[in-house]
Amino acid sequence: MKIQNLLCLALVGMLLLASASAQKKDLLRLRNGKSLEAVVIDLTNDSLHYRLPSLKKQYTMPRSAVEKIEYSDGTIVSLDESGAVVASVNEAWRTVGITKKFNDTKGMISVEKIDVTLTTGSNMQKTKPAELEASAMMQLQQQALEKKATLIYIKSSEFKTAYGEPPAIHIVGESFRPIPQKRAKKK
Predict the structure, then answer these.
(1) What is the DSSP letter of 185?
(2) Whole-model pTM?
(3) With 60 as the cut, is the pLDDT of residue 96 above it?
């Protein structure tokens, strides 16, 4: 009986250790040029509260010591010398892939059909078709990420230029994500 309890306790300890190491880490870029992998807990008016991934103890540093926080979800927060937020950007959408081959969606499930129409606006001579297409693709990736998709299959892409109108592009696609694996039931 004691051996079973010890084995059970050891198993629980290993699971806790594995979950702590699998936890997503943020990256702190400090003004002194150093970087620190941490789990950000809170960003208050004057300080940053964090902990090291392998420890539970919470630490604090002044916001002014931090140049940039790169969160595990792709959000990047830049701070000035006083610790004020200068910019905040989420670039997780860049992880969404784009393909024109339907076979690349094999083993995936359709999330939804997505499309975007983008025009150049008033400075139409300065925007090249490739730049317009790249901007439209970014918008598609952002839409797909909101639905937790990981891949976009491009069905059609049409560049339109009518006399007197700004150039436009219309892209139609479908977003996909991997099929969830079913867990085997224990007998």
Answers:
(1) P
(2) 0.54
(3) yes
